[in-house]
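INFO batch 0412 | record 1 of 1 | parsing
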Amino acid sequence: MAALAAVMPAAAQTSRGDGIEGRVDRLEREMRAVQRKVFPGGAGQTIEPQIIAPQQLQAPPGQPATSAVADLNARVSAVESQLSQMTGQIEQGQYRLRQLEEAFNAYRRATDARLKVLEAGAAPAEAEEPVTGAVRPGPARPAVGGPATPTVNVDRPKSEDPAEDGYIYGYRLWQAKQYDKAIPELRAVVQKYPKHRRASYSQNLLGRTLLDQGKPALAATAFFESYQKMPNGERAPDSLYYLAQALVKMKKPASEVCKVYDELTQVYGDRLSEAMKMDVATGRSASKCK
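INFO prediction complete | emitting tokens
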């Protein structure tokens, strides 16, 4: 009986240790799953748990082995804390994106009627004439009852990369201020080649073209879609910056403009050029952002 009484506490302690080991393994698997979602490419970006398994020391005879359970409890607490911190960071980023999405869904609903009117009254684009130069002045066409208005012939590039050619051609049309022709060319690049690097360029330039046309509401939608659909695109930061400019043109509250500037600096702060940082600082000052 005395021997049985001595064995039972040790067996109970082993059972507790196995249960805590199972919790540790489960939590560590969950944290690795979160890491794979946050850093799908790996590339050395994963966060190793700052937990060191205790060394198994042989307890002297006659002393109860209570340190193993205490160490396992410490490991469980550390893993739970780290997993909670990573989950909180993910939820914070998703919340910021949801805020912008909700705001611009409201803008879309408000401008749907205007879009239909503009599309119904849009004139078909003129057929392009073959030219040899990139951008060169063409013959003047006199307007009825007014002075002659010079036109510009724009060269369409031809290479083995149609997405590159489409963007360059749209850019040249934008440079020549032929906005009505530039818009369908830029939209075509985004629709046909959404995975090409020039899709981000074309969507951003589409917004700038609409902004130059005096259509800030349509431009805001284009800029927001550039950020929403291509957040890793090379022109995503520029689109957020010009989105703020479009909101200013729309006379939106300063709080909405500042929210866009905040998103820009939080998401792309390390990618902004010095010139962009100065422009953002000027914009924040003009809108009295805190």
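INFO post-check: The radius of gyration is 30 Å.
INFO record closed
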